[in-house]
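#struct-help
A.M.: can someone run this one for me? Single chain, 472 residues.
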Amino acid sequence: MKNLAKNIKVIISGLALSCFCLSCSEDIMDQIDTNPNAPEDVSINLLLPQVIMNAVRTVAGNQTIFGVSTYVEHSANVRINPIDPWNVSESMWSSCYYGLNDLEFLIAKAEDESNYAYLGIGQILYAFLLSNLTDLYGDIPMSEAVKGSDFRTPKFDSQEAVYANMISLLDDAISNLDRQSVGNPGNTDMIFRGDLEMWRKAAYGLKARFHNRLSNHDPENSANAALTAISNSYTSINEGFVFDGYQQESSVYNNPWSAFQNSQELFAVGQTLLDQMENFAGDLTNDPRSNRWFSLVNGAIIGAPTGENLADPSHSRYSQPSRSQILYNGAPQPLLQFDELKFIEAEAYLRLQNNQNAFEAFQEGVRAALQKLSVPANEIDDYLGGPGMPSSGDDLTLNHIIGQKYISFWLYQPLEAFNDFRRTGIPEMNNPIGTPLRIPYPISEVNRNPNTPTEINDVTIFTTPVWWARQN
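D.P.: on it. Structure tokens below:
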């Protein structure tokens, strides 16, 4: 653990220098071109921890994602300053492109050195960063991005092309992880400690997620492709794409979501989340997650209304996430877990009209979502028999699957819940001003890159869906 803490200290210190909101094109490349102290060569052993921590801390834990949490009504903003839906942090854009820039270097170097373990890991992380960007923004610079001064104003590739490239990257990663490599990353791999089989399963899991995202465009083939990928991915709650290296007794190497709450008291529990839990359990107290996840206000769990930005920094009016059970400094950061795969499996089988297999996968998904919280088996059985739960494949609907998936993504994966909502319309949102369908491009990119789409603004984010989403 001491070595891990030391590694995290080095990585986070380096990442702190990269947290300026800059354009993916001109700003970043200018810094690289003009910094006389920048090294001309970096060992991939040193670079791998940085690109991993970038993906975990400054992308999955990015402040932009907190804004998305309020979009999807997992959470409500209760700090004194309101958050308008069109004013979410721009830091996701720069964090992803900084990471992609480093990954371009790592991938090229690994390929030159026949270091296929690093190459495969780099390609998986590259696909993961691209997915965060395109799912939030839609069309993004890809083919001409992070190419240095050759493309200072890169073109925006279509989201369809980005998705095709993401899946191709994962296929290449799987192939490379199967090749004989000159080295293994070992402890420089801060997620799996050099276990390439776990990385291979992560690639297949991401493939399942990405294929399922295309359900509106190709329902049957997307379902079959997702099922094939799932069969090669994680098989229990003991496996998953999760970073578990944050330090509980630290104010520097801690989970960034906990850091947000420590510094600004941002989070209150969204009423929409509580409503969804009650829909399944009949009463909130019948959901075994409720007494693990939420603080009490005068002995009760009180959700914050959506879209009102009511200040409650002392948490005397609305419940906050439990600081001991879920929102604590050492809390793991999930990127993809077994229960998500079971819900994708259930949805895929439902699209293929195989309701019995869909029902079995759904029940496994719910069971896994509760097991990862150490809920006892008898409580899980009681929950599965609750008034809002299906009793057979004939009763199962998409509302059941996406509703349970929505709950399971709280607190740390609101982007995936947001993606499902835009794809399926489930669950119903309650914000009186409406739910955004994307986030606007950063002002820095709009001002510097004339190729930035001009039709996406603080008005059209409510009306213009991304390519894979339901079309109005």
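A.M.: thanks! The chain is about 50% helix and 5% strand.
D.P.: also worth noting: The two ends are 51 Å apart (CA to CA).
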